[in-house]
Amino acid sequence: LHLVALNLPFSGDMRADFQCFQQAQLAGLTSTYRAFLSSHLQDLATVVRKTDRYHLPIVNLKGEVLFNNWVSIFNGNGGQFNIHVPIYSFDGRNIMTDPSWPQKVIWHGSTANGIRLVSNYCEAWRTADMGAVGQASPLKTGKLLDQKVHSCSNQFIVLCIENSFVS
């Protein structure tokens, strides 16, 4: 399953699932992509289909392994990954080195176990208000689920996950 970033950073007011869907289509990817975010309807840990959570590796756009499988992201260690394996945007840029994402931080709105944090997800990703907060993770820590609170006015990286494998 591919983990890919949106082509631009977003504040807390985003239509992330739609953006993931649209950018995947424009990139010629045929699978379904969902935002790597907890939402008011779903915990992040359950975004990928049950049948695909254990046996499929999580890879970047070039097929390099970031995680052995989906569930390994949520084992409580904050989603530790190898920072030497790049994460790419849908248009092929390395988000860790490209200046389009000046802040190397991803939104996630979740606990380290992928459960939604209702008080820390920018009002279900519907506000960029400076007073509202969202849970995010600085990628330099090598963790997708580090527990840092930021104002929803920040423009951060949004990741998308291929939520079902299509052979």
UniProtKB/TrEMBL annotation:
Domain of life of the native organism: Eukaryota
Chain ranges of the Collagenase NC10/endostatin domain: 1-166
Pfam families for this protein: Endostatin
Protein name: COFA1 protein
Organism: Sagittarius serpentarius (Secretary bird)
